[in-house]
Amino acid sequence: MSGGPILVWGAGAIGATLGAAFIRAGEEVVFVDAAADHVAAINAAGLAITGPVDPHHVTARAFVPEAVEGTYDRIVLAVKSHHTAATLGGVARHLAPGGFVVSAQNGLEEHRIAAAIGAERTVGCFVNFGADYMEPGVVLYGGRGAVVVGEIDGRLTPRLDEVFALFRKFDRDAIRTANIWGYLWAKLVYGAMLFATALTNDSIADVLAIERHRPMLVKLAHEIQAVAAAEGIRLEAFNGFDPAAFAPDAPYAVAARSFDEMVAHNRKSAKSHSGIWRDLAVRKRRTEVDAQLGPIIEFGRRHGVATPIVEGVIERIHDIEEGRRQLDLAWLDELDAIADAGAAA
């Protein structure tokens, strides 16, 4: 059994929401975050979790990476996926012998973590709850969503039982799985749709509800599902997203029903837009697009699977990051054209 404080590296939307729940459940948590103003606010006035789900306030300790000391048996890594590589050196220095890192991130960061610190010290995690960093010391928990933990080799171990028990302190409906990669790849399919919605100022639910763009989003899902199938991944369903509905041989009516369920799920959340949109429209910074969607292209090339719509999404996100485009629903019409061209080829 691991013990001692939990080091939560990354006190943004995901890390702060998880860490605050762990504190309230009696765990000792130490936060690490690169934003000095956020760290100062947490140390001065605590961490406030706002929103309709479970608003609360906790007293917490936080450090910038250069100031944290000691080693920890349990580290929850919750930085943006494009910051993983730069963070892992610090994480490794503070990981106790025999300790482990849980990746509470989007993307396939477990591959990167395992390569840096060892597969045997890496635990997979899938999160789909809605949260946003609002201001120093304040994070919005806007809507519940699936939380899943699993060993990256699929074993059901006593360590996984321990991590599962910890994450149930955040959400009593957390899941323990032997197929964490199935959840992570499924989130890539859903995440690619979120990147498409972030090309506009419309909410996630509003974009997913637009009938004329749904065929393109289905084809986007087909591209990623084809890559996942080539990797031997069996996708898992979550929160209205049903991978079977987006299989190449699935009737369109089934996909339409899954879209409707995703629209319903997102309309219940106080988090109306994705974190990707927030990065582009509010915080004016780079997104995780390369770290999350880039590997799809890389894996696809290994297997000879073309991914033109994924590439189109990445190109347009880059254009917005660089100021060459503004957020506009018209970019989805361009993606529709790419999808139609692929179908005609």
TrEMBL record:
<feature type="domain" description="Ketopantoate reductase C-terminal">
    <location>
        <begin position="179"/>
        <end position="321"/>
    </location>
</feature>
<dbReference type="InterPro" id="IPR013752">
    <property type="entry name" value="KPA_reductase"/>
</dbReference>
<comment type="pathway">
    <text>Cofactor biosynthesis; (R)-pantothenate biosynthesis; (R)-pantoate from 3-methyl-2-oxobutanoate: step 2/2.</text>
</comment>
<dbReference type="InterPro" id="IPR051402">
    <property type="entry name" value="KPR-Related"/>
</dbReference>
<dbReference type="Pfam" id="PF08546">
    <property type="entry name" value="ApbA_C"/>
</dbReference>
<comment type="similarity">
    <text>Belongs to the ketopantoate reductase family.</text>
</comment>
<keyword id="KW-0560">Oxidoreductase</keyword>
<dbReference type="InterPro" id="IPR003710">
    <property type="entry name" value="ApbA"/>
</dbReference>
<keyword id="KW-0566">Pantothenate biosynthesis</keyword>
<dbReference type="InterPro" id="IPR036291">
    <property type="entry name" value="NAD(P)-bd_dom_sf"/>
</dbReference>
<keyword id="KW-0521">NADP</keyword>
<feature type="domain" description="Ketopantoate reductase N-terminal">
    <location>
        <begin position="6"/>
        <end position="153"/>
    </location>
</feature>
<comment type="function">
    <text>Catalyzes the NADPH-dependent reduction of ketopantoate into pantoic acid.</text>
</comment>
<dbReference type="Pfam" id="PF02558">
    <property type="entry name" value="ApbA"/>
</dbReference>
<dbReference type="InterPro" id="IPR008927">
    <property type="entry name" value="6-PGluconate_DH-like_C_sf"/>
</dbReference>
<dbReference type="InterPro" id="IPR013328">
    <property type="entry name" value="6PGD_dom2"/>
</dbReference>
<dbReference type="GO" id="GO:0008677">
    <property type="term" value="F:2-dehydropantoate 2-reductase activity"/>
</dbReference>
<dbReference type="InterPro" id="IPR013332">
    <property type="entry name" value="KPR_N"/>
</dbReference>
<protein>
    <recommendedName>
        <fullName>2-dehydropantoate 2-reductase</fullName>
        <ecNumber>1.1.1.169</ecNumber>
    </recommendedName>
</protein>
